[in-house]
Design goal:
By secondary structure, the protein is an alpha/beta fold. Helix content is 35%, strand content 22%. The two termini are 27 Å apart.
């Protein structure tokens, strides 16, 4: 069911869609639900090439995986999409799954490790700095503009979880990005201030800030930095359904566990995260089209609802019935793909 709403400010047609679009993708899609199954599928795929690349982000070297259609015409320039991984994620996981699927549809894509994380440079290690993460995305766009087979006028962005909010924020101030999509979007600042489901208290927030203050003082005095988990290391005692699924996704070896990703970030990141708001100014700064895809059962859906409500540019919110925050990392990717193909095809072509 699709309802049409009138845009405020910019004249555009907006829609909330309760099911993924009926558009077909270039080939039937099989479910990919583990790192091992993705690695095999990508290596066996003769329609897409992939290779490890590095690119510059100021003085840092960033590590990425570049996906390209296998049969690119000589001299042709292709649309390209920057894919940004979740907080706690890495380029080899859901970011690569979306990057690979989009390359199968004719796009040049890149999934990369955030600065300070994974195989990318940056000190201190394991920092989750939202400002740096947004700059990472801009540097990936820089890299695309240097590739002879990329059409610099048709560059898009896509992010998952925190990567979705970072992608939107980057798009607000980098008009080289022509279209942006957020999957299970999570605005880290809102999440830190209000809790996973938006029910956190002011007391919780003040306690976190007190802990950050103590941590910074301790580190200034020579103490070893405190590391915090992104998601629970095990599901024992966990009651939040999204966190149970997140632990299963990231920490189980038969799913998407990466030995190079320890599921830790610096506790001193928290003040930076709390001060950040990915959607601040979205009503005036975001002029490019935006697609949001969220699961109907996701505890994080309120982030997509907020971005959709505040944005004035052409926008669409697609709700996957029965979907959760984590199901859009792998199990429901195939349900998201038709909407992504429609969206990027409409605004960027292929």
């Amino acid at each position: 069911m699709k309802s049409k709403l009138m845009a405020l400010g910019l004249a555009s047609a907006l829609s909330i869609t309760s099911l993924a679009h009926s558009a077909t993708v270039a080939q039937p899609l099989t479910d990919i639900t583990s790192l091992a199954s993705l690695t095999k599928a990508v290596n066996d795929d003769r329609t897409v090439n992939h290779r490890q690349v590095t690119f510059k982000n100021g003085s840092l070297s960033m590590a990425g995986i570049l996906y390209t259609p296998a049969k690119m015409a000589k001299g042709k320039k292709y649309p390209a999409i920057v894919v940004i991984h979740p907080g706690g994620g890495a380029k080899e996981q859901t970011a690569s799954l979306y990057a690979w699927r989009l390359a199968q549809q004719g796009y040049v894509t890149i999934a990369y490790d955030a600065s300070h994380q994974g195989a990318s440079q940056g000190e201190p290690r394991y920092l989750e700095d939202p400002t740096a993460r947004v700059e990472d995305a801009r540097s990936a766009v820089d890299y695309f503009t240097t590739l002879s087979f990329v059409d610099s006028n048709r560059i898009g962005a896509l992010g998952i979880c925190a990567g979705g909010a970072y992608a939107i924020n980057a798009t607000m101030t980098d008009h080289r990005i022509k279209a942006v999509a957020g999957i299970s979007t999570f605005n880290y600042g809102d999440g830190m201030r209000k809790g996973w489901r938006g029910t956190g208290t002011a007391e919780d927030l003040r306690a976190t800030l007190e802990n950050v203050a103590k941590e910074r003082t301790a580190e200034a005095g020579g103490a070893q930095p405190t590391m915090l988990p992104y998601v629970p290391d095990t599901t024992a005692g966990v009651t939040e359904p999204d966190m149970i699924e997140a632990s299963q996704y990231y920490r189980q070896s038969n799913r998407w566990k990466l030995d190079s990703q320890p599921n830790r970030f610096l506790a001193s990141s928290n003040d930076k995260l709390i001060a950040f708001d990915a959607f601040n100014g979205i009503d005036t700064l975001l002029t490019q089209p935006m697609l949001l895809i969220a699961g109907s059962e996701a505890g994080s859906k309120w982030h997509s609802d907020r971005a959709y409500a505040e944005a004035k540019s052409p926008k669409e919110l697609v709700i996957i019935p029965g979907g959760t925050h984590m199901s859009l990392y792998d199990k429901d990717v195939n349900k998201a793909m038709p909407s992504l193909v429609n969206f990027y095809g409409k605004y960027m072509g292929n």
